[in-house]
Amino acid sequence: MPLFHRKTPAPAYDSARQQPAVRRSICNGEMTVGFIDRETGKFTDHMKVDGEKGLAEFCQAIGVRPEDVRTIY
Q1: Which pTM was predicted?
Q2: Are strands 70-72 and 18-24 parallel, antiparallel or unpaired?
Q3: 52, 58 contact by CB (below 8 A)
Q4: What's the CA gap between 18 and 21, in Å, rounded?
Q5: From CA 42, how far away is CA 34, in angstroms rounded?
Q6: Nearest 5°: phi and psi at 14?
Q7: Terminal Cα distance for the chain, rounded
Q8: Alpha carbons 72 and 33: distance in angstroms, whole number
Q9: 22 strand-pairing partners
Q10: Quick one: which of 44, 49, 20, 16 has its CA closest to 32?
């Protein structure tokens, strides 16, 4: 366990151009949160999270509910 835990700063989120999303691995359950560009459909990752707690922290940082986050596999 690291001595100092560095938090990732809240990402710049534009709700008109981006949709929050979590990409989950089918094989090992790894979760990466980020945003899907509404115009191109490209996923841009922000950080890896461990479970629902990390997802909740991400949602709180950008001001959305966990139900509003799209899940992609």
Answers
A1: 0.78
A2: parallel
A3: no
A4: 9
A5: 10
A6: -110, 105
A7: 29
A8: 10
A9: 33, 71
A10: 49
